[in-house]
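Q: My labmate handed me this sequence with no annotations at all. I'd like to see what the chain might look like in three dimensions before we decide whether it's worth expressing. Could you predict it?
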Amino acid sequence: KYKQYREKQASLSKEFQTVNNQELSIFQDIIKGVSQKLAKEEGYGLIMQAEGVVYYDESYNITSKILTRLKADLPKK
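A: Here is what I predict for the chain of 77 residues:
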């Protein structure tokens, strides 16, 4: 029974990870689209993710603008 339990656990864990990765990819695509639209509308030449950036002046942070757009663009449930 223990072996069956471990096999089922591994199977469910793999399935969860697959679905999680798919949903994350969809969400990242939505954020990318919102970011590109904002960049075009407001004339940004470059938008970077915070990961890997050593330093930036907080006045360049447009996260709140992207979140506002994202909330407005997402369908209401």
